[in-house]
Amino acid sequence: MPPWSTIETIMFDMDGTLLDLHFDNFFWLKMVPQCYAKIKGITNKEAITIINSKYRQVYGTLNWYCVDYWEKELQLNITKLKIEISHKILVRPNALKLLSELQLLNKKMLLVTNAHPRDFEIKARHTGISKFFYKCISSHQLNLAKENLGFWRELQKFAPYDAEHTLLFDDSVEVLQQAQREGIKYLYGIKQPDSHGPALKNSEFPLIEDFGHIIP
């Protein structure tokens, strides 16, 4: 249980934390290669090989999360394709309940995501999660991915916070490690970001299995 009484600011990641990562994994690992194979007249296997190579080239950078970059690189309408399967976007169990309870406690809540603003719009519209936060910030506004050096210091310009009294929930170990290096005290990971994927067995950070377990 996080020490809620000492925490002033609570930051939530979106994909894999508040939302089931299965939507994104399905989209990028299955739907995109299928669509790419169709427009290029190649097999799915060939498309997967090409696209995985493109993914590796920008992993860990802002372009990895950039809709504009991938629309140009793959010649696909990424936004349109995501809207077509937006019914697959799911909120993780008890996430809305936790957000509602924390809102009642007057905690300062921030949504801090690497998602591109258009991607965020689709998911916020479908789930209604944005109403719980006093600010929703995309890393594209800072021109840095959350795992990049200096992101959490730069965030202070957009939403000042006291790192000693701040908690971050994020499914990415790399993001949590960078936040730790930049002084954020309370850090929690997610045990199973994709409900159809494997659970993490070990982590240097405490892992949340169900947000219902930590409701104040």
- CATH third-tier fold name of the largest domain: Rossmann fold
Oligomer designation: single chain
Tally of contiguous helical segments: 8
In CATH, the homologous superfamily of the largest domain goes by the name HAD superfamily/HAD-like
Largest sheet: 6 strands, parallel
Q: Work out the helicity level.
A: 25-40%
CATH structural class of the largest domain: Alpha Beta
The total number of structural domains is: 2
How are strands sequenced across the largest beta sheet?
3-2-1-4-5-6
Give the strand content. Answer: 5-15%
How many strand segments? 6
Find the structural class using helix and strand composition: alpha/beta
Shape: globular
Rounded Rg: 17 Å
Output mean pLDDT.
Answer: 96
Order of helices and strands: EHHHHHEHEHEHEE
In short:
This protein has 216 residues and is α/β, with parallel strands linked by helices.
Description:
By secondary structure, the protein is an alpha/beta fold. The chain folds into two domains: 4-20 and 90-214, 3-Layer(aba) Sandwich (Rossmann fold), CATH 3.40.50.1000; 23-87, no CATH class. The protein is built from eight helices and six strands; from the N terminus they run βαααααβαβαβαββ. It has helices spanning 22-40, 44-58, 67-74, 78-84, 95-104, 117-127, 151-155, 173-181, and strands spanning 9-12, 108-113, 135-138, 166-169, 186-190, 207-208. The chain has a six-stranded parallel sheet, with helices on one face. Helix 8 links the parallel strand 4 and strand 5 (186-190). Helix 1 packs across helix 2 (44-58). The longest helix is centred in the first third of the chain and has 19 residues, at 22-40. The radius of gyration is 17 Å and the shape is globular.
